[in-house]
Amino acid sequence: MAYDELQVVLMPNGALQLEWATVSGTMTNRQNLLQNEIYDHYLSGPDGWLFFLGFTSNKTPISSSLNFWRKFAALYINTLRLSSDIEELRGDINLLPGDEELSALLDAVPLMTGSEYLQPEVLSALWRELHQSFRSKIDAYEGTVEQFFKEHSPDVHLAGRIYFHLVENKDHEAPFAFLATYSTMVGEDGESKHLPLKFALQEYGDDQAKLLDLLVTVDTAAKKSSLIREMRDSGDLFHPLAWSGHQAFLFLREIPLYEESGILCRIPNWWKKKSANISVVINVGGKMPSMIGLEALLDFEPRLMFGDTEISIEEARRLLEESEGLAFLKNKWVVVDQEKLRQTLETYEKARQLSGDEGMTLLEAMRFSISPQKKMEEQNAENLSSVSHGEWLKKVFNSLQKPGETCKVKTSGTFKARLRAYQQDGLNWLYTLHSLKLGGCLADDMGLGKTIQVLAFLNALKAEVATSTNATLPSLLILPASLLANWISEIERFYPSLSWFVAHPDMHKPGKVPVPDNGQLRALDLVITTYQMIQRYKWLLENCWNYVILDEAQAIKNPGTKQTKTVKGLKSENRIVMTGTPVENRLSDLWSLFDFVNPGLLGSSKEFGEFTKQLASAPDGYARLRNVVSPFILRRLKSDKTIISDLPDKVEMKSWASMSKKQAVLYQEVIEGINQTLEESEGIQRKGLILSTLMKLKQLCNHPAQYLGEELFEEKESGKFQRLREICETIYEKREQVLVFTQFKEMAEPLSRFLAIIFQREGLVLHGSVPVGQRKKLIEKFQGSNYVPFFVLSLKAGGVGLNLTAANHVIHFDRWWNPAVENQATDRAFRLGQKKNVMVHKFLTKGTIEEKIDRMLTEKARLSDEVVAASGENWITEMSNDELRDLFTLTV
């Protein structure tokens, strides 16, 4: 069964967007009605749906992302409701969220699209938007605020003027004092003051109507609480009261009930923080183990704690003899709930038995911290137990989460790149994992140089082997076929001494991969293959590798596919995965990646499935899950303040594409044709022949269908289309926007159709045939608040006069071979008003005229600046026949 679920996406600019997603399972009519009602509010205006969401009942299940924002909006509504002067101030009231409340919310963030953008300042901005929504609504409302709230939800009660206070006393017999107060205007200046409730009897005298109006919240609470009812009826409510610990406990546990009724409560902080409850804390990894890796045996020590204070088993047992309520222990108040305390002691005893003499492996400790109840065989153990890291383990995880503070790993002189500061941190992180025999996921944003960091790591590994007597196995890199050219180019540029071999037929003549013998393999540093080829070559599966490295690792996000199962069956000393796609968007994807990187860390698929089912009722599970996986994920965003300072505002990169077989065959035919006629032509005829051939080769590099004049542009027939998918899938996962430039008008619509499939929605197209009057509307739509993921532009139509700063990616699908023209197009996104770093992707087809001309322009900057800018492509026609043959020849 499958149904459409409404989900919330946090956009890079901090805005919230609702999207439908098809998920497996069933949905009740009540759930369906609620999410449709929420979506109707969303469509009616951007400012009302979140405010409406805050009033919806939390008893009706909705998606985890929607439920998180329901809690956020409900927190705002509750803060508004509990403001005693809301009726007088209305929209002018000034509300600020509490730091502790925001922190608790951030800890409970579910895995959802855009969660990486969620920072305290984003929550604060959305809080202000909620307040602005309330302000605009209440300013237009003629009734009271109470009536306004009742229209939204009959069960919501505004705070009255009654306050309940509970404070600690020094009296041992009655260690707590209770007092009810009310706020009233006193003095000539009309200043609001708090007075004991007994003075209300004097102030209102015989005016019973005013007195009843004041006590309406007390009457509401009295209907639900026998304690308040007895105090009201006996008159004790109007006097200061001295209470025992048991009486205070009865009062404290009913606080939510009083606040729901509209009574404001002032109580001790230790109760708000729940630090008065006793729990079991498992301290793991105090000392360095004798071995490393997930099977490293760590010392294991259970402790009984309340707050940050440890108590002995004897002290805890003595508490069992206390009556239900509060007891004073070690200068702190502790809750004595007989049943929970008994369960806690049972958990403690089980933990002691588990520790025994052997301890616990790192793998077991991490899994325990995700689901304590699984290990303790108790349904409620997650409320009783937690795992804390001992000194050694704390130091290890700190070095993983703060790689900039660890020892700097050095590369040898054979590595030609100069690492940026954050890239050096990435190398440190990879090497720390290596030293611990743990796998990791390098998930940096696209354009931050994941390839360079991994090459630097391979260089450091080789340097390590060079200083030891131990031989090492080669590593295996698996990637999409479209990335082969990219990796080869990066290796040749940054690590030319790396000994590598590509296990792919397109890289060998006559299209057959030779099987290296054992000696040849041992002489290699790296074997490169693709996800398709790994299933074809048995020798890749039979050998054991030093590292198996996956690029675009989302290729194994579906654990049930043959491809994923094959990759996970590879034998290796360790594993690294790379992805520019956020790995925390979907729980199933996260499990599959970690099942490869550190098998067993998140349990079996069934165990993880059971854990995820409990997240709806135990949202703190998201925080526990993050704590476990975060040391093994390194993700830096372009928007990070520590990264921005280390990046230029505009990052230009070459994106290499391989040719499909059809492209290669047609390309060769064109070259053979010109070789026969080039010698026989001269003058204008020769110039026309060369320019015509250039045009054909450009079209072929884009897609065979463009060259052949066909309607169907199949993805598999173009290396550029495949590369475009990989880049744009990552852009879509992050809900960013992209400009795609092409110099061919006929390519605009095929590109737009293809991109609409990737982004699951329509984009925009602008070329010379689009009327001038429509261009302004297209720009406004792209720059507007609704998400428009892509804009395909012909280079001439979109190269000047446009302001498209909503985009932070620019793709030059085909090259103009005139840097001035390309830069002018890029500046549609990179100009005044742009607040993001712009990533510029320049597509090049490996081994073709595109690569060769790009190399010429790079090597001859003067030619680029002076000749090309003035003459366009005409400079190519001045080349000799031999130079042209070399330029046109396909070298794949």
From TrEMBL:
Q: Which residues form the Helicase C-terminal domain?
A: 723-876
Give the superkingdom in one word: Bacteria
What PROSITE patterns does the entry give?
HELICASE_ATP_BIND_1, HELICASE_CTER
Coiled coil ranges: none
Q: Which residues form the Helicase ATP-binding domain?
A: 431-600
User: Which InterPro entries does its entry note?
Assistant: DUF3670, Helicase_ATP-bd, Helicase_C-like, P-loop_NTPase, SNF2-like_sf, SNF2/RAD54-like_C, SNF2_N
Alphabetic keyword roster: Hydrolase, Kinase, Serine/threonine-protein kinase, Transferase
The terms under GO molecular function for this entry are:
ATP binding; hydrolase activity; protein serine/threonine kinase activity
UniProt keyword annotation of Kinase present: yes
Pfam families noted in UniProt: DUF3670 (PF12419), Helicase_C (PF00271), SNF2-rel_dom (PF00176)
- Name of the protein in its database record: Non-specific serine/threonine protein kinase
